[in-house]
Amino acid sequence: MRRIHVIGIGAGDPDYVTAQAVRALNDTEVFFAMDKGEAKSDLVGLRREICSRFVTRPGFRFVELPDPKRAADGDYNQAVSQWHTARARLWAEAIETELGPDGVGAFLAWGDPSLYDSTLRILEQVAQHIEFSFDVIPGITAVQALTARHRITLNDVGEPVLITTGRQLRSSGLAGSAVVMLDGECSFLGCPPQTRIWWGAYLGTPDEILVAGTVGDVGRRIADLRAEARERHGWIMDIYLLRA
Asked: Could you tell me which residue ranges the Tetrapyrrole methylase domain spans (predicted)?
C-alpha cells in the first residue's frame, strides 16, 4: 500500500526540524509541494532547502502541484470547502501518478499539521478516492516560535489562552489572552490601546521581524511594517499574542 508522511517542519528555521521528522524525510521517495505562484516561490524553496540539508538517501524527487485558486468573495466556509475539494482531486491524481503501489510520499507542513493547516482535512478527502495509509509527524509551531523569540510565556498564571483568527477577533473581541493567526486585516487595531501585543513575521527566517508593546504605542507601526514586508516579498506569514 502507498504510504504518506505529513511532516511538520517548523516555522521557518531548519533547526526546528525534529529527529523524528528527519527519519520520515529519509523514508520518502516523492515530496509533494503546492506551487502558489512566483510571489510565494520562497515557500517551496525553503522546503527544498530542508530536504537538501537533512535527506541523505539518493533519488528523492519533488513534485510541484499548481494550487487551485480560492474564491475571494462569497461565503468564506463554502469557498474553503470548494478549495479543499479541488486540492483533493489534484492530490489524488498526483499520488496515483507519481507513487508506485508501495511508494512513500510526503507533504511538508509549515509549523504543525494540526494547527490551521489544511493538509489532514484534504487527505481525508483523498482517501475517498484512492487507498493509502498516512502518519503525522508533529512540528514546532509558529506559536512556540513567537513566544520563544519574545521570551514570554503563552498564558498568565492559571489562565487560559485562545488560539483564533483575525476574522474571529473582529467578530468576538478579546477577553484574556489570545494568539491570532491568519489576520490580513490587522484586527488588533480594533483592540483597546492598552492591550499588550507581541507580534512576529517570517519567524525563524533571515527576514524575521519582531515588535512588542501596547496596541496604542506600536499597533500602527506593526501595520506599516506588515504592509511594507508584504509588498517587498509578495507574501507574509505573521502571528501575534494579545493580552487584555
From this structure: 3-218
